[in-house]
Amino acid sequence: MRVKRIVLSPQNQAFSAATNLHCVNFPKKHQVCKSDNSFNNNLTNNSNKMQKAFISFLECASNLGGLGRKLIRVAILIIFVWIGGLKFANYEANGIIPFVANSPLMSFFLKDANNKVTNDEGKTVKEYTLNKVPEGQYNQAKHDWHVENRTYLFSHGLGILIMTIGILVFLGLFSPYLGIIGEILCIIMTLGTLSFLITTPETWVHASPEALAAGEWANGFPFLSGAGRLVIKDTAILAGAVVLLSESAGKILARLKK
């Protein structure tokens, strides 16, 4: 059988070049055309490069555990020292009273936490509700009530405790024994803070009768108020403290086994 030699016209040659086709001569055989695989090869090479880059990223990220734990210690130091220091400011002390007055674990620190009085609407309420002072404002009569109630004395003591916990957790970078003390205290404190979601009415939105009548449905659980949104963030601190507790305990065990 005689095979004709394929000759491409100039137009077909241009089409062949545009479509990545070219003719290949096989010895003593007829001439055939096949697809150029360079495009597919480039795709494969690019895919391999991306895979290698992704694996390199994962290997790098997998080694960040130690850095992450150090950053948690620094973060707790900043948060606790800052917030603890603010407890010496009257506005911050006034702001924590709803939490403390309603907590069965802390209300005994305050003199008049559970006193009941009648408000202007004729309702019986806790006395602290009539002595709230908005941030940035001052009321002499309410200030005197907080002094008598031991509000500022309690707040100052709490501030010292919070700052001490933050410093102990940070010192866990150098001493696991100091660290584990701070981490245990941090866990206890955050659990106490989270308990406010159960004991403090102000942590939830309370829609007025007018709002409910108008169709407002954000009322009670799970609608956190500003105070509640502040409290719920302690879940992240609690989780971080547990991680650090595990680290400190591991270091102490390693020393004891030597």
Automatic annotation (TrEMBL):
Which BP terms does GO give this entry? response to hypochlorite
InterPro entries the UniProt entry points to:
RclC-like
Q: Which residues cross the membrane?
A: 152-173, 180-198
Q: Which keywords does UniProt give here?
A: Membrane, Transmembrane, Transmembrane helix
**Cellular compartments per GO CC:** plasma membrane
| Source superkingdom | Bacteria
Q: What is this protein called?
A: Inner membrane protein YkgB
